[in-house]
Amino acid sequence: MKAEPSCPRCGGRVRAPGLLSATWQCDLHGDVQPLQPVQPPSTKELAAAAANSQVPIWMPWPLPASWEFTGVAYAGDDAGARATAVACAGPSPFGGMGELVLVAEEMGIGLGARFAGIEGPDPGEIFEQTAAHAKLYAAGRFTSMWCVPNTRGRAAFLGEAGGLWLWAVLWPQDAAHLMYDDLVLTDMRDAGSEIDLIPVGGLSARLLEI
């Protein structure tokens, strides 16, 4: 696991604020929100992340049958998370295991684009090219989601919820079926004691790759 904060866009080393800059700095991307080291998944870790976040921590709740929470990552500093990523995994009806990472982030951070495997930080003009491909139910309302092209071995969808990007990235590509199963997302900041009911699995390798 990474022991130090890193750049959410490239994973490179970042410099802490100091005499020369009041913000975290990446040599390639300039001002960034530092991506904090990923910890082993637990409901305690999830609750701590929720208490320290300025953006939603989305999770399918209830989870699909036999799926588990497999980790949380976030980018931000002492003022709170400005981008969050929640990983879940479980059986795919097409065989093998499916994985899902949900990212909520402020525009310009680039964490969702990195999971999607595209040049970031933001997705460009996909909203203008076609009608929405899927919908999620997030925070009590339907959110339109667009399929992101050229994501190389995964399926990625992008929408906007509450003025923030909402990414859903799935492995393998055929795990995209989840996007058509009336997926209901809950912001874990509002989950309260229900967080203790969430089944926990092993740490997602997807989070360790960022």
How would you describe this structure to a colleague?
The protein has 210 residues and is mostly beta strands. It is built from 3 helices and 12 strands, in the order βββαββββαβββββα. Strand 8 (134-138) and strand 9 form a beta hairpin. The longest helix has 9 residues, at 43-51.
Strands, helices and their partners?
Layout: E1 14-15, E2 25-26, E3 30-31, H1 43-51, E4 58-60, E5 68-77, E6 80-91, E7 97-105, H2 111-116, E8 134-138, E9 141-147, E10 155-161, E11 164-171, E12 184-187, H3 205-209
Parallel strand pairs: 8-12
Antiparallel strand pairs: 1-2, 2-3, 4-12, 5-6, 6-7, 7-11, 8-9, 9-10, 10-11
**Percentage of residues assigned to helices:** under 10%
Name the helix and strand elements from N-terminus to C-terminus, one letter apiece: EEEHEEEEHEEEEEH
Biggest sheet layout: 9 strands, mixed
- Distance from N terminus to C terminus (CA atoms, Å) equals 10 Å
Strand order of the largest sheet: 4-12-8-9-10-11-7-6-5
Global structural class: mainly beta
Average pLDDT figure: 91
Strand content: 25-35%
Q: Any low-confidence stretches, pLDDT <50, length ≥5?
A: none
Radius of gyration: 16 Å
Question: Any key phrases for this structure?
Answer:
nine-stranded mixed sheet, 210 residues, globular
